[in-house]
Give the backbone structure.
Amino acid sequence: MVVSGNPLADTQDAVGGWQYPVAVPRYGVQPGWHSAMAQGLALSSTGLADALPRYDTGP
C-alpha cells in the first residue's frame, strides 16, 4: 500500500488530478478528462497509505 502511494502523487497533473488519456465518444469527452470515481479512489488510497504505521528502516 505504501509503495502504491508515491506513484499516485508523482503522476498528478497541474490541477491535482489524474487524467484519462483516451476519448470516450459516447459521452463526448476528449483525452485528458478527469473521472470523479478515479479521483476518489486515488484520494482514498493515499489517505490509507498515510494512516499506516511508519517503521524506521535504519540509516
